[in-house]
Amino acid sequence: MYRYNPTDQQLVDDRVAQFRDQMNRFLGGRLSEDEFRPLRLQNGLYVQRHAPMLRVAIPYGTLASAQLRKLADIARRYDRGYGHFTTRCNIQFNWVRLEEVPDILAELATVQMHAIQTSGNCIRNITTDPFAGVAADELFDPRPYCEIVRQWSTLAPEFLFLPRKFKIAISGGAEDRAAVRFHDIGARARMAADGRLGFEIHVGGGLGRTPMVGRLLKDFLPREELLNYFEAILRVYNRHGRRDNKYKARIKILVKDLTLEGFAREVEDEWAWSRGGPATLGDETFRSMEAFFARHDTAPAPADGTYDPAQDPAFSRWVARNVSPHRAAGQAIVTLSLKKTGVPPGDATAEQMDGIAALAERYSAGEIRVSHEQNLVLPHVARGDLPALWQGARALGLATPNIGLLTDLVCCPGGDFCSLANARSIPVADAIQQRFDDLDYLFDLGPLELNLSGCVNACGHHHIGHIGILGVDKNNEEWYQVTVGGREGERGALGRVIGPAFAAEQIPDVIQRLLEAYLAARHEGEPFIDAVERIGLEPFKARVYGGVA
Amino acid sequence: MSRLICRGELIEDRWRWVDADEAPAPAAGEGLILPLARWCAQRPGLDAARTGVWLGPDDDVAPLLPWLATLPLIAIRFPVFTDGRGYSLARLLRGRHGYAGELRAVGDVLRDQLYFLQRCGFDSFALRADQPPEEALAAFHDYSWAPLSAR
Ligand code: SF4
User: Fold this and answer.
1) Which of A76, A381, B95, B138 is the most buried (most CB within 10 A)?
2) Could you give the ipTM of this predicted complex?
3) Matching InterPro entries, A to Z (chain B) (predicted)?
4) Predicted structure pTM score
């Protein structure tokens, strides 16, 4: 993992002092609400439905045990004893007190954390593959590059007042587990024919009000040029992106207005000047950064004879769903499910966080990852430790064997917390989990992603759920629009609306019918999303509306 | 434009700002800062050492490029502090085009942005009238760290 040097520490300490002063001026009436708003947002502080909300950055979703313990401590002392992990791999505290936020930020700084640029019209937290560095299919580890981009983008003075927010994802796997084509910039690891390392660059992807799949801007960018090229993109966007209408201010609209070719020309022109310039990255930078992310091939050797998935059906179910292949033989990647029925998806209590920190220390080299599906991942587990880890996770209520299944649904905080919501999302998620809690049935359905957002801002990424649910407002009532056919990864696609919206209580039945249509049509071993691609939406529409009407 | 911070000091301004619809009438010892269009139109007849130019956020720097070596002052106007275009204009002028004269931030220029403006190459700041100058001077020391992207 990356460790702060004195410069990084100085930055976060200075930032705490600066924000404390700004808060004091705001509370003392010397800084207006309008002037304070962008400052607090760039420190992760929202004013929400019930209370202020603080969003803390978890850079590329990586946490050390000590950091997770600090988050637990903050949840206990400054919130109501829990936190919510988001689809952008951050954590939100929903019940903080405004005047205590500088103290919370000071606490975070003691464990090399902060809330910088988790909101506002600036470059947000960089995201990556939760399996980065340990995935079996990886071309190279994206994390050193994530860290380089993190340092470059943190308080990047030129880009603090962009037309709108800006999200960057970088992935290294053959399979894209970071949804790079749904980000403002998405970079995928590539190797040139001569062995040079670099990235394929996509631009203008994103969900929200106007969902778009990113366009391929450059098929091979040499890694040395990463910052020069990103800076060129950002400068073109900062100068020419629309500022007159916030719904048209994302870079995707600029790319559309200029056309991809026109946009690319502007970027090339800007890059032609900076190329090979002072911000060009050197081998020394790569080497020193890579050293922070050296592999943990030192995890304890398998304890003989204790690893036998068949010994217990519950255990083998868990292994089947929650354990993924690791690049090193004898090791495994374990996903702890934050999707237990009855608990809002992505929520973890302070006790769970402490428990996970301890499990990570014992079994995973003290490291935890946050996935954009709102689960937590232990990336360095010796296979022989799986039974013991499973027992530990079970005791914490984190061993639901549902990763990648219907009940592992992704869900934003929605109308229970968020002031932008059109509808609540958590109760709908709960109703779905209650209805489909039979494990045999879920296992038989196979991989299925269901995503739920409480409004068009799409924090629940409903467009890329195999089944997506979007809360909409009709005459001040909560309704839910259903989409089918979204997917992330290589064959990324946006879901399509199946028809008129539903009331909340209809949703479990609607899901039931969609599943029936799938089960009636599927070929042997064919996952839901592949069946949708093969047969189209009609059979699903017919089953849902034919039956309801 | 009385409160002017130039290279870290509070000084008296020797430049007069000229709006697009104003007729310039310089007092003795005073320079003029002209809007880009007028500067372009009148440039051949101007006293180069005593004429600066100001840019709005969507102005193009191209007409200035041949004259950067002799331009004493370029001002960039921030209509609201959240309009970040001026930061990129500054970086373009300083970095790509090597402008070395005075680069002034004007308009909705507030204490809390000074550090970042300076990092993009501004060296003088005509603060919004209500900004306490002492606090503003302190703002240049908000961080003892230097951002990667503006070194
Ligand atoms: S999708 Fe809408 S309701 Fe849900 S968290 Fe985002 S802004 Fe709030």
Assistant:
1) A381
2) 0.95
3) UCP030820
4) 0.94
